[in-house]
Design a protein that fits this description.
The chain has three helices and twelve strands. It is mostly beta strands and 167 residues long. The strands form three sheets. The chain has a seven-stranded antiparallel beta sheet with strand order 8-5-10-3-2-1-11. The chain has a three-stranded antiparallel beta sheet with strand order 7-6-9, with no helix packed on it. A hairpin with a 2-residue loop joins strand 6 and strand 7.
Length: 167
Amino acid sequence: MSDNGNSSVAPITLTGNAGEALWFLGTLATIKASGESTAGRLALIDNLAAKGAGSPVHVHRREDEWFYVSEGELAFWLQGKVIEAPAGSFVYLPRDVPHLYEVASEQARYLFALQPAGFEEFMRAAGEPAPSLEIPPPPSEPPDPERLTAIAAEYGIEITGPPGIPS
């Protein structure tokens, strides 16, 4: 969904745990704003995850991404460097920059936003509706990298490496 500047967008007001909840890559991800609700302008996702949860090395080809860490700590691998991001940190990642992140503390809560929207569609395709508003249990086996890579490609995301901070 795209916005040519002519569409009207209604205000969004959500409280607490309201929003569409997904289990996605070991994370409870709650979509607070989506392409449907912002005419494609923005997606905003509230995330709660345990230590080690995060993403594989990837590149967004369609959207810019930013993170705000509200609780705990994340670690980012960005252009060959490890960036520690404790609570209160803001990290902006423009499109076409390879990166990954993972939860470095026992648990973390963080927002990420993507402009324009669309990444939330990938999350829906690769994740599952959350049956409860809690961090998902550890999977019995890791996600199938070929399946995840194929789904990501449909949404302009190129997976270029495995999860985990490279050593």
